Amino acid sequence: MREAGGGVKVAKNRLVKIAIRDTSIRGISDLFVGQSLIVYSDSPVIAPKISVSFSNDNNEFRVLGGVVEKGVLNQDS
Fold it and tell me: What is the model's pTM?
């Protein structure tokens, strides 16, 4: 991910929920349950593309949702 200009962070779910509580992306807070990673990039394509590719090769890793600009996406989107 770093080579593609993105990054990965492990964060405490409770702290993420507090941080996004009063923002336009608060709808994603329900996804922060259990072990969670925040994967990000400046490009709206790079992080999802690499995450889905990694998920296809690793059964324990699942993409639950994301944020593109200010829009919240989930598996149904």
Answer: 0.75
